[in-house]
Every structure is written in structure tokens, then in C-alpha cells.
Design a protein that fits this description.
The chain is built from three helices and 17 strands. By secondary structure, it is mainly beta. The chain has a domain of 164 residues: Sandwich (Jelly Rolls). Strands 1, 3, 4, 6, 11, 12, 13, 14, 15 and 17 form a ten-stranded antiparallel sheet that branches. It has a seven-stranded antiparallel sheet with strand order 2-5-16-7-8-9-10, with no helix packed on it. A hairpin with a 2-residue loop joins strand 3 and strand 4. The chain is globular, with a radius of gyration of 23 Å. It binds calcium ion (CA) (2 copies). One calcium ion binds next to strand 17.
Length: 282
């Protein structure tokens, strides 16, 4: 018995050393990892505050407010927020009302993940008074990694689109959706799947989207929970893996999400009433 164990161990050692030799002598392309080579010699730069694995991806109690617009002064600070089609934005009594056509609002910030901050937390507090069934894209979209154009018609972002029901659409770009004729869907307004939120947006809620660099998470507040997790999207190279609140895998597909951090709200042909939008970081 002992002899056999010894032999097995010996075989394992030989196999390991053969495979490591192969790696050393093998394909040069597979050994080219400049990031790991240059990291130790880098000049010491700023580093974000420590964050635990448990804190990561959740709204952080000590997150710093970077930009905030509560509409109390009747206008949107153009140094902090970019607006698209602002002729449809009407501000009154501390609310931004967008009740016809569409508009979008984007925080303007020089994001710096991993050097200055661990994560960015973007939230919008809003309700919807457009109370009739129509197309899924008639909604209030909250986006992360949004393209420079800032709204849903351009690819690259991940968006959750809210309406007066509990049905929330998760819009994704990339070759992820096929129609009933088995053809690839290319129209921006049809590239989605549906999840169910615990409460509708007839009443006001706060939606918070967090970007940690490798994960994008959406939360909303409910009667029972301050931060109810709607989805957790893991950006794993070319793969996009999405989980629900219970950790159940609800989507797997192509990761066609932009690399650069950028957020937006895009009120599209609905009637929306926004109390405030806030960008935080930790
Ligand atoms: Ca203002
Ligand atoms: Ca307000």
C-alpha cells in the first residue's frame, strides 16, 4: 500500500514539473501578461480605502457624495450634470418632470475605479404617472456603462427600464436575443429580458446602481427592505452572467458592455417625476 502511495505521489510530481516546463518553453503569447509584470515596479499612487468582500457591491454607509441634484433651486447644475433634450425637462417644487418625448440626465465625473474609488453608486428617486400598457421601452431607464450618447438607442450600456407595473426590463447590447423566427435581434428597444420587482413605480422608489468594475448591481428600496437586490451582473471577460437576489443564475450571454464607467437616466416617452439623483463613491 505504502509503495503504491509513494508511486502515485512520484507520478504527480513528474506531471506537475512536466506541465510547468511546457508553460516555460511554450507559446510566448500565453506568457505575455504585462499588467502583472509591471505592477510591482509601478510608482506608488493613490489607492482606494480598504473594502471587505462583504461590503463590495452594496451601498456603502460611508460612501462620499460626489454629485447631487435635488432640483430644489429650480435648475440642473450644468457643471455637474449633462442633459439631453432639456426642452422636455420641467422643474417644479423640487422635482424634475419629464412628461413628453424623452430626455436624459448624466452625471459628469472623471471616474477612477481602483485608484481613487472601489465602487461608484448612482441613484435616482422617482415615480411614474404614465399608467397604461404599451411597449416595454416606454419607461424610465437607469443605465450603467452607458455610451457617450447617453441613452438607450446606442449600444454598450446595461439598463433597467422601469414602468408603472412590477415588470422591469433588463436591456443589454450584444448578440444576446433572438426573435420568434430565430433571427438575431438588432433593434435596441427589443434587446431585453424581464424581471419582476417587488413593488411598482406608481409610488416613489430609489433605484441604486453600483459599478465595482467587474460587477454591476441594481437595488431598489421597498416597504420591507432599504436595498432590495434586483440583479447582480458579473462581467467575466467576454461572458456576462446575471444573478437574482437569491444568487440564482437568470441570464448568461455575451458581454458587450462598455469598459468605461458612465451612468444615465433616460426617461423615454413615459411620465416621470424625479425627486433627486445622486452620485456617490467609496
Ligand atoms: Ca439644482
Ligand atoms: Ca427634490
Amino acid at each position: 500500500m505504502r509503495k503504491r502511495k509513494f508511486l502515485l505521489v512520484l507520478i504527480a510530481i513528474i506531471l506537475i514539473s512536466v506541465s510547468s516546463c511546457k508553460k516555460e518553453n511554450g507559446n510566448p503569447a500565453s506568457t505575455a501578461t504585462p499588467e502583472t509584470v509591471t505592477t510591482p515596479t509601478k510608482e506608488p499612487g493613490p489607492t482606494p480605502k480598504p473594502i471587505t468582500e462583504d461590503e463590495k457591491g452594496k451601498p456603502h454607509p460611508q460612501a462620499e457624495v460626489l454629485l447631487k441634484e435635488d432640483f430644489e433651486d429650480g435648475e440642473i447644475n450644468p457643471d455637474e450634470f449633462m442633459t439631453l433634450y432639456d426642452e422636455y425637462i420641467k422643474i417644479s417644487d423640487g422635482y424634475m418632470n419629464i412628461t413628453e418625448v424623452w430626455s436624459a440626465v448624466l452625471p459628469q465625473y472623471a471616474y477612477s475605479l481602483a485608484t481613487l474609488h472601489n465602487q461608484y453608486e448612482f441613484s435616482a428617486t422617482f415615480s411614474i404617472s404614465h399608467l397604461q400598457p404599451d411597449a416595454p421601452h416606454i419607461a424610465y431607464w437607469v443605465g450603467a456603462r452607458v455610451p457617450q450618447e447617453g441613452y438607450g438607442a446606442y449600444p454598450g450600456g446595461i439598463w433597467l427600464a422601469f414602468n408603472y407595473t412590477n415588470q422591469v426590463r433588463v436591456y443589454l447590447s450584444g448578440d444576446n436575443f433572438i426573435d420568434d423566427k430565430n433571427e438575431l435581434i438588432k433593434e435596441w428597444d427589443k434587446m431585453f429580458f424581464t424581471i419582476t420587482a417587488p413593488e411598482s413605480f406608481k409610488e416613489e422608489h430609489t433605484v441604486t446602481v453600483i459599478d465595482t468594475g467587474d460587477e454591476i448591481l441594481y437595488y431598489m428600496n421597498t416597504k420591507d427592505e432599504e436595498n432590495y437586490l434586483l440583479i447582480r451582473a458579473v462581467l467575466d471577460g467576454s461572458d456576462l452572467i446575471i444573478y437574482d437576489k437569491n444568487g440564482k443564475n437568470i441570464f448568461n450571454g455575451e458581454n458587450a458592455i462598455n469598459d468605461l464607467v458612465n451612468f444615465s437616466i433616460f426617461s423615454h416617452r413615459t411620465k416621470s417625476h424625479t425627486d433627486e439623483i445622486v452620485l456617490k463613491a467609496y
